[in-house]
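Hey,
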Amino acid sequence: MNLKKNSVLELGPGPGYFSIPIARKLIYGKQYLADIQPEMLEYAKKRLNKRKIENVEYHLCNGKTFDFKDNFFDVIFLVTVLGEVENKEAYIKEFARMLKSDGVVSVTELAGDPDKMSIEELSTLFKKPNYFIHTQYGSKKKFTINFRKENGKQDY
């Protein structure tokens, strides 16, 4: 994805391992890290500050709703997070609210994760709130699926 000017939300960044390459690609954009664990946000902040990455904001969330404007993000991404979420449908509905028209939700799942979701489970979950699979990479063991929000549809 061409991320130079985008607003990107990373949910569940943990210690910020995947945050670094994304923030570096956002030359004119900004990355927002949201997590329910304050200590994870602190780890991520230390890691990014150490590398002098400054185009990042850190947000503690409650695990149910997100305090971000409607139609704000170009991209929302999660790496091995969605399987741990209790109310997945509510999260995906919130994604639809926060994403700009034609925005993308990128979900990565890795082999070995005990909460790993399958491609089929994710496809079913994202179908209801008007997403379609835009691109898919990897295999059934480890993959990334980019779901694009259907242009103009606001089903939230």
